[in-house]
Amino acid sequence: xxxxxxxxxxxxxxxxxxxxxxxxxxxxxxxxxxxxxxxxxxxxxxxxxxxxxxxxxxxxxxxxxxxxxxxxxxxxxxxxxxxxxxxxxxxxxxxxxxxxxxxxxxxxxxxxxxxxxxxxxxxxxxxxxxxxxxxxxxxxxxxxxxxxxxxxxxxxxxxxxxxxxxxxxxxxxxxxxxxxxxxxxxxxxxxxxxxxxxxxxxxxxxxxxxxxxxxxxxxxxxxxxxxxxxxxxxxxxxxxxxxxxxxxxxxxxxxxxxxxxxxxxxxxxxxxxxxxxxxxxxxxxxxxxxxxxxxxxxxxxxxxxxxxxxxxxxxxxxxxxxxxxxxxxxxxxxxxxxx
Amino acid sequence: xxxxxxxxxxxxxxxxxxxxxxxxxxxxxxxxxxxxxxxxxxxxxxxxxxxxxxxxxxxxxxxxxxxxxxxxxxxxxxxxxxxxxxxxxxxxxxxxxxxxxxxxx
Lengths: 339, 105
Prior knowledge:
The complex is a heterodimer. By secondary structure, chain A is an all-alpha fold. Chain A has 14 helices and no strands. Chain A has helices spanning 3-11, 14-38, 46-73, 78-90, 94-118, 123-167, 170-186, 191-205, 209-232, 239-254, 261-266, 268-288, 299-302, 309-330. In chain A, α5 packs antiparallel against α6 and α7 packs antiparallel against α12 (268-288). Chain A is globular and about 70 Å long. The relative contact order of chain A is 0.09. Chain B is of the alpha/beta class. Chain B has a single domain, classed as Response regulator (Rossmann fold, 3-Layer(aba) Sandwich). Chain B is built from 4 helices and 5 strands; from the N terminus they run βαββαββαα. Chain B has a 5-stranded mixed β-sheet. In chain B, β2 and β3 form a beta hairpin. In chain B, α1 (15-30) packs across α4 (90-104). Chain B starts with a strand and ends with a helix. The A-B interface holds A 16-17, 19-20, 22-23, 26, 70-71, 187, 189-191, 194, 251, 256, 258-259, 261, 265 and B 9-15, 18, 63-66, 82, 84, 87-88.
C-alpha cells in the first residue's frame, strides 16, 4: 500500500463521517422539538415535557460529536466524544465546535489504535489502551485543547455567525433560501442536498429558525410536484412513473425528496430544473413570509412547530402546482416503446 | 457468482431501500445471486449470516453512513459505491463490481 492510499484509508470519507453524525443526531432533534411543542400545553405535564425537551437539547451536539468520532474510529470514541462534545457545546461552541471536536477525537483515537496494532497488541496492551490510555488521554488532551485553546475563538465566531444569520436583510435571506432550496432539489437526497440540509441543521442548532425553515419547505416540493404531475398529464408518463407517483404522495407528505428520483432518472434534463425552480421558489416564499419552524421536521409533521401554519401550506401548494405545470410543459408525450 | 450487499443512508428511510430494490433487480437481470442487507433507520434488516458472508464472492458496500457491525466484513473483498449511483444505474454498478472481480483473477 502506498503512502497516499494509507492516508486515504486513515482519513476515510469526510462526508460519510459528517453524515453519520447527523444521522444519529436527528432523533435527538426530533425529541427536543416535539417535547418543546408539547410543553406549551398547560397542565400537570408541562414541567416534565419541558425538562425532557431541555435535556434532549443538551444532547443534540454531543451526540453528533460522538457519532462523527464513532464513524472514524468505532466504540472507543464514545465516552471522550460525549464528554468533550458536551463540554464544547456548553461552552458555546455549537454545531461547528461539535464537528471539530468530533473529528479530533475520532482521528486521535484512530491514531492510537493504529499504533497499538503496530505493536501487535496482546491482552495487557489492549487492556491498558482501551480502559486507561484511550478514554483518559484522549479526553484529557482534546478536552484541554477545547477548553483552553478553541472554546473562546470558536464560540465568538459562532455568536457572530448566529447574529449575522438572524439579522440578515430580507434580500439576503431570500437569496440564501433560493440557493439552499435549489440545492435540496438538485440531487434529491444526494450529497448536494445533504450539504444544504447540514447547513440548515447547523443554523437550527444555533436557533436561527428563520434560516432552517425555508430549507425544510424545499424538501417535500419536488416529490409532491412529481406526485401531482402525472395526474395532470397522464400521457406524458409511462406506467412505471404513474406507479411511482402514488408512492410519491406518501413520501412527499412525510418529507422525503427521494420520491422524485424515479422521474428524474427517466428524464433528468426536464425534471431536475423544474423541481429546482419549485424548491427554490418555496424556500424564497417561506423566507419572504418570515416563516420559522421550531421542529426540524419537514412536511406535515413539521406543521406542529410552524409559526404561520396557513402561509406554510401556501409555500408548499403554490410551488408544487407551478412545478407540476412546468414539468408537464417541458415534457413530451411518451411514445410506446417496443420492448 | 454470489454477491452480497449492504445499503445505508443518513435518514435511513428512502435511499437505503431504493438501492436495495435496485440491486436485487439488477442481480436478477444479470443472472447473479444477490443478497442485500439494509441498514435503515430501524437498524439492520435481512441480516447477512456469517455463512452467507463467507460464501460470497464480493461485497457491494453502499454505505452513505458508516455501516453497523463492520467487523463482520473484515478481509472480505469489497466494492464501494454510493446508494445514489445504484439507484441511477444498478445494472452498471453490478457489472462494474463483477469486472473488478475478474480483473483481479
